[in-house]
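ok new one. same drill as before - structure tokens go in, u give me an amino acid for every spot. 486 of them this time. try not to just spam alanines like last time pls lmao
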């Protein structure tokens, strides 16, 4: 059974269509008083919440992460000679009992669940079983023009049922834009960022990495998609869960926890954003303008991480474009290059991950110390969870602002190490050997787009903009047309 299908059916029953309504969508509605017998929501700083999680885990001291400033005394490593202190990656096609995975059935019924469990417990956190239902409402509809082509836009509100804890309200924001002259349902790319208004409205600021390119460059992704006969959807991650530790007792995580701190295996912001994207897909499955079998997910930087997580967990998504995602995304945790595990366990980024992930930055704790080599899974397995669906890993170049900090080579190594799963499931890989320690990235602007696992490093900066003109025809070829997914 495909991931989240049952949830999608349940939630779609709550979709209410109110065309033409012009009520503004807000991230958090007016807060209600705390009901008798329920706890007051915590209003901690990120530092206080971070310290609380350290105390729950028995951690007394964390190792500091390296600096992205190459002039700093503790600057990150950029020497390949010392970049692989843990060269042996966790096996992707070996069960925990040591048995080799030799069939698609073994992958779907045994190995994939094992990998998901370890990501849930140690890295990304678990989505609680009692997450409330979401009711989607179309609050505004407008006609307009995108790239010279007529379109129809819808502004959507996804209200999360907060009857169990009215003190916290969550109202997810999403827009959907489709070609007005389409003869039938169209494929749609859902994009993390929330920076796109309805056609004809005053444009909102473009999300990081998504604005129009330099003069004379490629049109924005939105125009390219509409020109190709696709639609696009924009979902606002901040309307789902805040991008900071202080917000962990608010948003969807705080609502489910009734305003109280997380436990060590509770979900972090990356998993919460992915959950929100899945709830957005629940709506898209009910919209007759959308070909729900060909909905993709995209993001850049931290939202590139979220896009990869979304694709890994929800097999309804047909294709993914992962832009400049780095540590916590496509980059191997075990690499000592640029951003490190210790950056993710610090107070500035820990909220993306499960609380348990802090253990792998521990210098002194009740359990001793742990490091990246102790994490039971790594990025190649996160990519493998996307197989056999089309998975496009995108980066730019440091000279234009896609910093060395992101570890482009470490991400390419992860893609190489994910290849065996794509092949096992009947998909085509990058066409390289599986020796991730020896295989090197192709030159800039050299495409590896012949299979469902794809790689391209463009000559731009911290954006996936220059790769859209390659992504769209590649996605047309592969999305929704590959090997069967369970």
């Amino acid at each position: 059974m495909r991931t989240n299908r049952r949830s999608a059916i349940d939630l779609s029953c709550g979709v209410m269509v109110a065309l033409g309504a012009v009520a503004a969508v807000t991230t958090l509605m007016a807060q209600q008083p705390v009901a008798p017998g329920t706890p007051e929501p915590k209003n901690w700083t990120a530092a206080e919440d971070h310290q609380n999680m350290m105390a729950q885990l028995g951690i007394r001291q964390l190792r500091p992460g390296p600096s992205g400033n190459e002039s700093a005394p503790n600057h990150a490593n950029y020497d390949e000679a010392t970049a692989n202190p843990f060269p042996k990656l966790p096996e992707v096609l070996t069960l925990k009992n040591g048995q080799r995975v030799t069939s698609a059935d073994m992958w779907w019924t045994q190995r994939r669940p094992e990998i998901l469990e370890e990501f849930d417990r140690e890295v990304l956190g678990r989505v609680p079983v009692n997450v409330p239902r979401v009711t989607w409402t179309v609050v505004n509809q407008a006609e307009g023009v995108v790239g010279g082509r007529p379109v129809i836009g819808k502004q959507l509100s996804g209200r999360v049922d907060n009857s169990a804890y009215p003190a916290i309200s969550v109202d997810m924001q999403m827009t959907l834009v489709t070609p007005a002259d389409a003869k039938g349902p169209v494929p749609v790319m859902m994009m993390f960022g929330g920076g796109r208004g309805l056609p004809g409205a005053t444009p909102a600021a473009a999300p990081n990495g998504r604005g129009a390119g330099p003069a004379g460059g490629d049109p924005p992704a939105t125009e390219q998609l509409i020109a190709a006969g696709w639609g696009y959807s924009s979902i606002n991650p901040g309307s789902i869960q805040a991008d900071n530790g202080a917000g962990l007792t608010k948003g969807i995580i705080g609502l489910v926890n009734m305003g109280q701190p997380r436990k060590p295996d509770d979900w972090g912001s990356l998993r919460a954003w992915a959950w929100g994207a899945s709830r957005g897909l629940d709506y898209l499955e009910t919209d007759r303008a959308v070909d729900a079998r060909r909905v993709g997910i995209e993001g850049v930087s931290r939202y590139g991480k979220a896009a990869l997580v979304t694709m890994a967990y929800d097999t309804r998504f047909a294709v993914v474009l992962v832009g400049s995602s780095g540590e916590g995304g496509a980059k191997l945790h075990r690499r000592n290059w640029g951003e490190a595990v210790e950056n993710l366990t610090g107070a500035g980024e820990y909220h993306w991950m499960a609380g348990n992930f802090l253990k792998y930055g521990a210098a002194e704790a009740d359990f001793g110390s742990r490091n990246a080599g102790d994490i039971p899974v790594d990025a190649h397995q996160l990519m493998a969870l996307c197989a056999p669906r089309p998975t496009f890993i995108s980066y730019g170049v440091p000279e234009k602002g896609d910093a060395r900090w992101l570890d482009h080579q470490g991400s390419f190594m992860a893609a190489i190490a994910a290849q065996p799963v794509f092949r096992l499931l009947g998909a085509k890989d990058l066409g390289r050997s599986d020796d991730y320690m020896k295989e090197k990235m192709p030159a800039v602007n050299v495409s590896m787009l012949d299979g469902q696992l794809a790689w391209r490093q463009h000559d731009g900066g911290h954006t996936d903009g220059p790769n859209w003109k390659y992504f769209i025809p590649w996605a047309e070829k592969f999305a929704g047309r590959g090997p069967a997914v369970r």
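The chain has eleven helices and twelve strands. and btw Confidence is low (pLDDT under 50) at residues 1-30.
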